[in-house]
């Protein structure tokens, strides 16, 4: 199989963003037209099958080659400065918008961060647009045809001590890029929607409008937001799950209010216990200060 055929098989978008000059903007084009552009959208709007890392370094190719047990499938280099995009092909694409598939999205996000760490890639790269390996502007290196499982990449990254630490997940929203935006928007919006349900019982249309507005508001907070259609798919997924699967919705307002009251009461009791404990500790501390006076 030739390099061109490999890329055409691995690259899935049918109507991708593409451009010859990023400073002039990007817009959606037919696949055949986009294939001739210098920059193209890496993945379809609702799937991730290519993990992309931007290596802003004059020895980007060498850095990518250091990943001996998990080398990228492609390294697409700018011959003028040596900077490159490294792309890893996944054996199973990860759905980005369906409620039932959120853990794989978070997993893929962590793996992408590990790959970035392994090659000292750009933290601010969004993952949306990549250098087109078929374009004459770039030097493209097709290293192999093996498609990776996420678990396979995880094992290799662990061996090189390149997986992100647990504290990495607490990164502030404004710094999130790539799949991180998707994860943060989804998790924030679904928790907000669970509380918002109480205002929309009997009207899925009203709930959909509220969740849609909230999702697009969260998306707008990012320096490099998700495409509007992908943000809308997240909103649709949350609403669809609530209306068809969630007991919050199916049990109705009476049960919801009773559950909400019980939760608030439990939190209140926990807060009182914690306050009393702190007061007791402060009292003991003051007594010891006097005795040691």
Structure notes:
The protein is an alpha+beta fold and 293 residues long. It has nine helices and eight strands. Strands 2-1-3-7 form a four-stranded antiparallel β-sheet, with no helix packed on it. Strands 4-6-5-8 form a four-stranded antiparallel β-sheet. Helix 4 (102-119) runs parallel beside helix 5 and helix 4 (102-119) packs antiparallel against helix 6.
Question: What's a quick, concise take on this entry?
Answer:
By secondary structure, this protein is an alpha+beta fold. The chain is 49% helix and 14% strand.
Q: State mean pLDDT (0 to 100 scale).
A: 85
Structural class: alpha+beta
State the distance separating the first and last CA atoms.
Answer: 84 Å
Order of helices and strands: HEEHEEHEEHEEHHHHH
Number of helices: 9
How much of the polypeptide forms β-strand, as a percent range? 5-15%
Major sheet attributes:
4 strands, antiparallel
Going across the biggest sheet, name each strand in turn.
2-1-3-7
Overall, the morphology is: globular
Helix content: 40-55%
Radius of gyration: 24 Å
Quick tags:
alpha+beta; 9 helices; 8 strands; 49% helix
């Amino acid at each position: 199989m030739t390099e061109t055929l490999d890329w055409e098989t691995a690259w899935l978008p049918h109507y991708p963003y593409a451009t010859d000059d990023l400073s002039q903007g990007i817009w959606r084009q037919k696949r055949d037209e986009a294939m001739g552009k210098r920059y193209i959208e890496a993945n379809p709007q609702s799937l991730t099958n290519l993990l992309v890392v931007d290596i802003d370094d004059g020895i980007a190719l060498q850095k990518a080659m250091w990943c001996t047990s998990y080398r990228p499938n492609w390294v697409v280099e700018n011959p003028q400065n040596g900077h490159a995009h490294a792309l890893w092909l996944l054996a199973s694409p990860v759905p980005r918008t369906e409620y039932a598939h959120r853990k794989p999205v978070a997993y893929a996000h962590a793996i992408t961060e590990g790959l970035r760490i392994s090659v000292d890639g750009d933290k601010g790269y969004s993952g949306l647009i990549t250098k087109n390996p078929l374009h004459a502007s770039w030097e493209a290196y097709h290293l192999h045809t093996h498609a990776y499982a996420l678990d396979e990449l995880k094992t290799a990254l662990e061996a090189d001590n390149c997986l992100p630490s647990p504290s990495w997940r607490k990164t502030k929203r404004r710094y999130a890029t790539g799949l991180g935006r998707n994860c943060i928007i989804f998790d924030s919006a679904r928790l907000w929607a669970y509380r918002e349900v109480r205002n929309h019982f009997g009207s899925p249309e009203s709930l959909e409008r509220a969740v849609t507005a909230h999702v697009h508001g969260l998306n707008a907070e990012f320096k490099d937001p998700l495409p509007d259609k992908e943000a809308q798919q997240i909103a649709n997924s949350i609403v669809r799950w609530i209306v068809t699967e969630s007991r919050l919705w199916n049990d109705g307002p009476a049960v919801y209010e009773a559950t909400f009251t019980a939760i608030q009461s439990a939190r209140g009791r926990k807060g009182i216990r914690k306050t009393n404990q702190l007061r007791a500790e402060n009292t003991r501390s003051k007594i010891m200060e006097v005795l040691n006076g």
